[in-house]
Amino acid sequence: MSKIRIHIEPGKITDTVSLEEKEVVHKLKNVLRLKKDDELYVFDGKGEEYLYKIKNIVKGKIYIEKVGRERKEDIPARRIALGFPLTKEEKIDFILQKATELGALSFIPFNCERCVHKAPSAKRLERWEKIIIEATRQSGRLWIPELHPVMEFKDIVGMSFQVKLAASIKGTGAKRVIDTQWGHVLIIVGPEGDLSESEESLLRENNFNFIKLSEHLLRVETAAVFAVGLINHLLAE
Hints:
The protein is an alpha/beta fold. Helix content is 31%, strand content 31%.
């Protein structure tokens, strides 16, 4: 059986924990069929993971007891923030899941001239958070990426980062641009139909470097996920 992990917020991780969330209890008890004395791992999303053992299972609750800390990891020195435009819901779900698996440490959804979708509801934002947490759990990461509120394009380009990149078919090959000494990097991908000329000018005014991801036009979700994976790979070389 593969390693079983669940997420619990840092302030709720104690020596003994009562698991009561229906989805979690159902999965552990009825899907994974865990029993008393079985082990599982709890990560707090802030760099720590603990080994727990099941002490008791009753209707609707599972009691677990801490055995010890299994892993601890400082926040990564290499931090990739992904800025992406508001687009179809299923595309954003895909971006959040796959870019989390590939190492993004923060997400910044933004509104721009060619965005045709409205700002997400509170319920939708809650779903996005769950997707990010689940992708963190599944991929074995210890740090849960931060999800920023939706920003206007002019505000995201003005944010302070060590390095600011924008994906563009007219840009320079990523390998020729990326420096392995970089730490805090923002990469922005545009919407279907690309960014407007005025938005591209704004990027230049705010010291963005344009990088080419492919010789071909990419969908928003393809560009976003590939950009994170490529940058993370090149920074690690």
